[in-house]
Amino acid sequence: MRFHNLWVDRLIRGHRNWSKTRIFAEAQRQVLLHYQWAVMTDFLPAVVGQETLAAVFPMRGAHRETRLTFYNPCTMNMPVEFSVAAYRFGHSIVRPIYRINTAVVDRLPVFSQTNDPTKDLGGFRPSPPNFAIDWAFFFHMKGRRVIGKPQASYKIDNSLVFPLGLLPLPETGTGPASLARRNLLRSMQLGLPSGQDVARAMGVRPLRDDEILIGKAIDDPEESEAITDVSPGFAGKAPLWTYILAEATANAFRVRDGHIAGAQIAPMRLGRVGGRIVAEIFVGLMLVDRNSIFHNPSFRPDSAFTDEGRFGFRELIRAVIAD
């Protein structure tokens, strides 16, 4: 909203003869295009990798074409393989605690077993006035220094932090308190295919059972175990969500006999199944939106907001907090 209001103010100053309706519509258009640019050039490359994204949507010059192989966006449906499995990778990158600004000295857990709104970041109620986020604690901001480094997300792997195993009830619904269990139950209820079946349908070699690790890939890799060590019933049929998280580990490390062997060899991003699903849904939905950057190939972010030609989420945030 602040970015939208920033654009409204700029347009009023630059186009005094425009009607309010026209100013609002153009501000809306600019926000949409800038946000989509940040998604396509900043967020998606970090999550799925530039190679996967370029295979689906090569952003080269004025001529752009999509190469959707598995997703038909004409119905504008959101496939359950995306909503219930692939895009839930985000649950694995949540940190257990965060520091949000200099006014709140302590780092706060995402959830806690208390009803005190000053003790966690759980939401579902008004936040205390001193809980405003200082984005320098999350992004490198020029001219802003904080103690320590910005708090990066956790790596994509088959582990969730402790607070996500104790979701507050009934605020988060009637399901189990474990978010991982909720995801797996939802997958079963909707009849999602296994990760191996989806891989084969996409023409991708499925991971072996001993390559599908459960546990942390970075901090405690020795505690990871193969999915069939968790239960032999998962042999050859890993839940799709679990499989997609395991792909990220298998792409970043050499995995043998249910263990990580050696140092990291590649960034921890979604793999050939998860990355392709996420990329195709984002690109497909933009394809059917006649106002998207796909249909505005000459669009480039306003130079007032770019940093050496770059416009991502850091630049978007910097634009609104500097205004």
Automatic annotation (TrEMBL):
* Superkingdom of this protein's organism: Bacteria
Where do the coiled-coil regions begin and end?
Answer: none
GO biological process, alphabetically ordered: response to oxidative stress
The UniProt record lists the keyword Secreted:
yes
Identify one Gene Ontology CC term for this UniProt entry: extracellular region
Cellular compartments annotated: Secreted
One Pfam family from the UniProt entry? An_peroxidase
Keyword terms, alphabetized: Glycoprotein, Oxidoreductase, Peroxidase, Secreted
The record's GO molecular-function terms, alphabetically, read: heme binding; peroxidase activity
Q: Which InterPro entries match?
A: Haem_peroxidase_animal, Haem_peroxidase_sf, Haem_peroxidase_sf_animal
Name the UniProt record assigns to this protein: Heme peroxidase
